[in-house]
Structures are given as structure tokens and as C-alpha cells.
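[SOLVED] Need 3D model of a three-part complex

Original post:
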Amino acid sequence: MSSVEIIQIWVAAFFTLAIFSFLYKDNPFYKLAEHIFAGLSAGYYVGLIWKAVIIQQLWDPMLAGSWWLVIPGILGVLMFARLWPRISWVSRIALAFVMGNTAGIFLITQLHGIVLPQMQSTMLALGGTAGFASALLAIIVVVGVISTLIYFYFSKEHTGVLGVTARVGIWFIMVSFGAHFGYTVMARISLLIGRVYFLADQWLPSFSQLF
Amino acid sequence: MNFWDKLGTLDRRWIYLLVALSVIFPLIVPMSFKISITPEARQLFEAVDALPDSSVVMLTFDYYPSTVAETEPMATAALHHLFRKDCKVVTMTTIPLGGPSMAERVTRTVARKYNKVYGTDFVNLGYKANWVAVLKGMGTSIEAIYPADNSGTRLSELPLMATVKNYDDVSFIFVVADNDIVQNWVSIVNAQYGTPIGAGVTAVGAPKYYAFVGSGQLTGLLGGMKGAAEYELLADARGLAEKGMGMQSLAHLVIILMVIVGNIAFFAGRWSKKGKVK
Amino acid sequence: MRTIVPVIVAFLAGFVMIVSFFFNPERTFFGRIESEVLVWVTIVGGFTLLLGVVSITRVNWHAVRTKKEGWVYNLFTLLSIFVMAIPAMLPVSWSQLFGDTEGSIYDWLFFHVDYPMMATMFAMLAFYIASAAYRAFRARNPEATLLLVTATLVMLWRIPMGEAFLIRVGDTLLFGYNLPESINTYIMNGANLAVQRGILIGAALGAASMSLRIMLGIERTYMGKG
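Solution:
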């Protein structure tokens, strides 16, 4: 390991342990690490947007002849008006442009890309089964989808047939949330494994180089 | 407070210590296990494996550095698989915090092992803001959204991008993500342009995407570190995920044990209180 | 005026996206307009990120200037922003330390300071979830018991050791029944898939109706006050 690599590993390990120290209790090392993290993350955005948007999407294309890009550039600058209450209304135009655009895309894609395909694959499930297990699975899916949708329908009181279906929905939801919890535990442990592995595989071996 | 109440309200730092030990122990006493392959992971691997060599594949680095332990092994294994097949790889990211840097580093590190040439065999497009517009815009023209790649080279100067104008020229999209962007890749890109999409996601998001696999909108799914380990095994690109399975196993067992003990303490405490009242 | 103009802009921006969905993007006027509008949106979106940075700089500068409690930490935040941002904006031709390529200050600080801290912050969640599972995950009623049993089965299924145990249980107690395969089929691809599909459909319908409300100017909360 070169001395530069050792410094890199020790800096990373210092900040890793500083953050972990919060598990015992809040302390100045954790506070310092947290504030540096916030600053570096904000600084990262600046470097990224400077290159990816201002230089690559505005400056260079405008120099090459696409002068009309000054319009989104102005709209983007207008966004900063939000910081001053007296002129914050000016930023609404830029916000409305972005929100309207996203809304237009979502209106189509949510229906075309999610609702219709998901409904279609639920309806097909009963028709194209092969064998008892396949048919059972198809019934589970259809009953599960309908009862879940009914459980989350709160415009009518859950009584009678609606109430029974919602009750079935709760059972399905508990199974799904249980699966979610199991997966979430797995996810969190995996992230811890990543950091422990770094400390064990890179930081601890560096001790032998130093001492 | 009786024994059961004390057990049920144990200082959380003892719990932290138990979890830490369960993750550290397999490092001292290595454990290796046979990893089984789920049908969803095999489906993804076979879909990529079936691509003709020299196909263009878009690999997305849609994850934050916070979930690197789960997602980076997936991206790395995918790159090994793709480069071994001589596929052309176009990487991009919708994550502003760290996405472009991680895509650059991971791709170049793996590419070096296969002597791949930047600009001809792989290109890193980098990041552009507003992922909805980016995903939609690339359907018409990638160059309109990305006039230059991550390092500032104009796309027109990159040989690979002369043949990749939009999704029609991409054979497969391999999304590695730790957020809901997979849903948007499916609803915006797969639904409108028909490009097959496979996803490697963190375990937190995995249960949700079974619905997309079931409807055929996703061709395969990797869930969490186990999913990454499965792909590493299939693609013969062993890495952190496979090594982490031992630690994962012990930690899960410790947590299951803690849940059981917690419930025993709860019910025993309740019964002992009922007994005293009688 | 302050409300009507943004509402009209939102409607037009969305209308272009909806109409262009039905037109060929390369051969029609609407298609070309859509393409240009999307580029403009990515540019404006970039400035939105910068807005957050300006805001955080203001807040921390104010804390340092008025010497609020813990102002030294706020000073470190400000210094970190500038140390990261300024070298990244300078040309690489001046020095290899500038820009954002490998070997630059920007790249070094990201990979060796920012990235480890971000990863560690999320790694801490493992401890919190274990503590929550121990203290709060109780089988108080049949529904909670079902949730707990499913979670346990899935946690076992996802680890090789647990999967081997489940196979052994199936072999010895359930006449060779493949438990792991059943968990994948009937829990993940059965009940879980059904519930997630129901939630997806409901959420997508909600998102579509919210999009319509935004375009028609009924929903204006994104504009804020003033």
C-alpha cells in the first residue's frame, strides 16, 4: 500500500467511525462529520450542475448557435427568486413549467405504463393457467388485488360484503408487509456489512504498514 | 420491574453490540454457503446472456453511495457479464449525488480488465437533471439530452454513439437502482418504446417489483445482496456480495432470535403480571 | 396575473407532452416541440438543485454570522461547500487537482470523505431495525402474528443457512415439500405480488388524477405562498 492509499483509507475510516460513534451517544466527532458531510454533498451538486448543465447544456450549445437556450437559462435563474419573499412569485413560472411538463408525462405513463398492464396481467392470470398450482396462484393474485384495492377504498364504510373483502385484504397486506419487513432487515444488514468489510479488509491491514 | 420487563426493555446498546458481533464473527471464522438461484435472477441472467454479442446495453447507475454494498456488486457483475460478451455498454445515472462519479469509476475499473476502449466499447453519459424528462427525451434523441458525455466529449465524436441514437438502438436496459426510478423506467420507457428492462434493486424495494416481473414489464429481478450474490455466481464474477452471505446469515439468525426473545419476554411478563393480580 | 400565468404555463407544458405522445417525434412539428421542451426541462431542473445549495449556504452563513450555538460546525459546513465546489468549477488545464476527473480534489473528497459517511449513515439503520424488531415487533393479535411469521420465513429464505434449514424442515416434517420454492411462489409471487399490484394501481390512478389537477390549475400548492 502506498502512503497516499494509506492516508485515503485512514481518512475514510476516521469519518466512518465518527458517524458510528453516534450509536453510543451524540458527540463532537459525529457533529463535525455530519456538518462536513452536508457541506461536501452540497458542494458536489455545484460541481455537477456547473459541468452537466451550465457548461454542457447552456454555454457550449449557445456558443455553437443554439441561442434560444437562453430562455430555459433565464427560467432557471428565475427559480432563485424563491429566496426573496417579495419577488418569490417570479419563480412560479419556472416551477409551473417543470411541474406541468412532469404532470403531462405522468398522466399518460401512469395509466398506459402501470394501470393498464397491471390490470391486464391480473385478468389474464385465470385464463392461462396450467395445472392446479398455477390455478391456485392465479386465484390468490386476483383475490389479493381486488381485496387490497377495496381495503384502501375509504369513501364507503367497510360493512357487509365490502367489510368482508376488506378483512381479506388485511390478511393479504399483512403477508406482504411481513415480506417487506424481512427484505428490509436484509437490506439494512447488507449496508452494515459493506462498512464492516471496508474496516476489516482495508483499514485494519493498514495497521501493519504503519506500525 | 420484574425480570421479563427488564429483558423486554434491554438497553439498545446491548442490541447494537449483538448485531455488530454477528457481522464481525464471520470475518474471524469464515463461513461459506451454497447460494441458490431464484427464478427471477436466472431470468435476468438468461435474458442478458441471450443477447447477441456486440449488442448495445444501457446500464444505469441509479443508486446513491449509501446503498453501495447492495447495488455496486450488481453493477460490477453485470459489467463483467456484458464485457465478456463483447456487448457495447452505455452507462448513465439519474442520481445527482455521486451517480456520475461511481459510474465512471466502476465502469473504467472493470473495462480495464477486458481491455475495453472508451468511446468504442463503452460510454458514460453521466447525469442530467429531471429524470422524467431524461427518460422520456432519450426515446427520441439521446444526443439532445446529452450533448456531451460525462467528461465533456461531444457525443458526435464518440464512435459508439454514432450508432446509438435512441432506445431503438438499445437491445436491453439493465437498471441498478435503490429508489422508485425502476417504476419510471418501466412506465415511461418499456411501455412506450418496448425496450426490455431488467432490474437490480435494493432489498427494500424488491418486493414491490415482483408485480412488474409478473406482468412481464420487467425481465428479471435481483433483490438486495443475495440477488447480487446470485448474479455474481451466474456471471462468474465473484465479489463482495458472495463474501457477505456468511455475515448476512448470522445477522439474520441473531435478529430472528431477538424477535423470539422479545416476544417471550413480552408474553411472559404479561402472564406473570396476570398471575400476581389473581 | 401572479397565479394565472403560471397556471397557463403548467397547462401548456403538460398539454404538449400529452399531445406529442400521439405524434412521431422525428417527423412531426409536435414531436420536435416535445423534444425541445424536454431539453429545457432538464436545464431548469439543474437550477432547482442549485437552489438547495444556495439555501443551505444562506442558513449556515446566518448561523456563523450571528454566532448561534454550535456555529463552528456551521463554519465547517460552509468551508466544505467551497472546498468541494470551487476546484470543481476551475478548468482541468490549470491543474490536475481541478475539475472532476480522477485525481481531482472534487473526486478525492467525494470518494474518501463523502461516500464513506453516506454509506455509514445508512449502515447505522441495521442497528436501529434490530432494536425496533426486539422492542416493538410483538405478536399482539392474529394480524401481527401473520406479519411476524411471514417476516421470519422471508428472513430465513433469503440466507443460504436459512434456506437449507427450510429445505430440511420440508423434507422431515412436510413429506419432502419444497418450502423455499413455496415461499417464492405463494408469498412473493402470490400474496405479495397481489398486494403490491393493488397498491401500484391505486397509486398510479392517484398520480394520474393529481397530474390532471396540476395541469388544470386546481392543484397549486407547488407554487407556494406569495
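Edit: The mean pLDDT of chain C is 92.
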